[in-house]
Design brief:
The chain is an all-beta fold. It has a single domain, classed as TolB, C-terminal domain (Neuraminidase). 2% of the residues lie in helices and 40% in strands. The protein has two helices and 26 strands. Strands 1-4-26-25-24 form a five-stranded antiparallel β-sheet, with no helix packed on it. A four-stranded antiparallel β-sheet has the order 8-9-10-11. A hairpin with a 5-residue loop joins strand 12 and strand 13. It starts with a strand and ends with a strand.
């Protein structure tokens, strides 16, 4: 692989990345030091925002292991250690161990890559080693607009480093279709029993965002389906008239980060407006507020709706960021290569341009670290070697790198 190595130390980083943190000990310095966009808003409980950095932070090294890739959206490790990647434009590639991308994989359906659209997430089926099945999400062109869809296919690699998708089947479509180019989501996460969680957005615009509150609409939701796309029989709204049975939770804005924790529970981080990125642990049937309840403000500077941050009928985020990190990609770290991060969530930051390391105890955030990578981070994965791999993007150039982050 291409190796461009940097050692990140406390003398180089304003947020300090040094030795193993003891979560019971924290510094007085929060990880976020910039002024909030909504200074009059107050957290609902202590530690809900601006968590301190650990008393001692984590020394890491970074290496560029692949570069000059097309602009990527997601990455997944194959069992042989190679990386399966999706490009926003609609291409899928296998990246070899030397960092080079093989030929385009054939059989990928057409995508609408305007704005935030394109070929989005990719996940291996739990039985991939025997079935060869992969799942991927994409902004699907449709009559009257587009929408986030999920497809399954059998990946058949070839000796040239490329391959083909065979038996491509669209198993799920977010509805309604909408003619827009924003807030498609989406992440795909398999649960411990083989259930598939699909996160989506509410398509951003004022005329669609209120549908995040409507259980008859697929905008602004987490879905829970089986591998064929059918709703699970114990989903919360399966017996409710006029509700979409695939819905797991509602009231979300735009979720581009999702991962299971060590107990097999789903956690997500969603994009807020100007302020208000949220870390949540979505539970069955619960309402996470958007757009009626949110931290942050609209891009115009006006309040969102009534400008309220709490309501009895909606859930509070476990944690929120103001100003935003612009989250994309997420992994739960349970490896040995970076012991200080064991049990932490690693979130990609598009605006914060690095990794955001969130240490959690008892479902509460206790410390936060920032690992600057000086690039927009689109996806995050833990590799088979226990290192952390960050997919970065340069939208203006239409290129990406893959950066390996390991213990120093």
């Amino acid at each position: 692989m291409i190796r461009i190595t940097h050692l990140l130390t406390g003398t180089l980083l304003s947020t300090a990345l040094l030795a193993t943190p003891t979560l019971g000990q924290t510094s007085s310095q929060p990880a976020e030091t910039e002024a909030p966009n909504a200074p009059d808003q107050q957290p609902a409980f202590k530690g809900q925002t601006r968590a301190p950095t650990p008393d001692e932070a984590t020394a890491v090294m970074t290496e560029v292991v692949a570069e000059d890739l097309p602009q990527l959206w997601a990455m997944e490790f194959l069992p042989d250690g190679r990386m399966l990647v999706t490009a926003k434009s609609g291409a899928m590639h296998i990246v070899a161990e030397d960092g080079t991308a093989g030929p385009e994989i054939t059989g990928v359906p057409e995508v609408d890559d305007d704005g935030q659209g394109g070929l989005l997430d990719v996940a291996l089926a739990p039985d991939y080693e025997t079935s060869g099945t992969v799942f991927f999400s994409f902004s699907e062109p449709r009559d009257g607009g587009n929408g986030t869809s999920v497809a399954s296919a059998r990946l058949v690699p070839d000796e040239a480093g490329g391959g083909a998708l065979e038996d491509v089947t669209v198993i799920f479509r977010q509805t309604p279709t909408y003619d827009g180019d924003k807030h498609f989501g989406s992440r795909l996460v398999f649960g411990p029993a083989g259930e598939l969680y699909v996160t989506v957005g509410e398509r951003s615009d004022v005329e669609t965002r209120q549908q995040a509150q409507d259980i008859g609409s697929g905008l602004g939701k987490v879905f829970r389906i089986d591998a064929s796309g059918a709703a699970l029989p114990d989903n919360p709204f399966v017996d409710e008239a006029n509700a979409l049975p695939e819905i797991w939770s509602l009231g979300h804005r735009n979720m581009q980060s999702a991962a299971l924790d060590g107990e097999g529970r789903l956690w997500t981080v969603e994009h807020g407006p100007k302020g208000g990125d949220e870390l949540n642990r979505p539970e069955a049937g619960k309402n996470y507020g958007w757009p009626e309840v949110t931290y942050g403000i609209d891009y115009s500077g006006d309040p969102i709706g009534e400008g309220i941050t709490q309501k009895a009928e909606t859930e509070q985020p476990i944690y929120y960021w103001d100003p935003v990190i612009a989250p994309s990609g997420m992994a739960f770290y349970d490896g040995d290569a970076i012991p200080a991060w064991n049990g932490a969530f690693l979130v990609g930051g598009l605006v914060s341009q690095g990794l955001v390391v969130v240490h959690v105890e008892g479902d509460k955030v206790v410390t936060e670290e920032r690992v600057p990578l000086e690039a927009r981070v689109r996806d995050v994965k833990v590799g088979p070697d226990g290192a952390v791999y960050a997919v970065t993007e340069n939208p203006e150039a239409g290129t990406s790198q893959i950066v390996r982050v390991s213990g120093a």
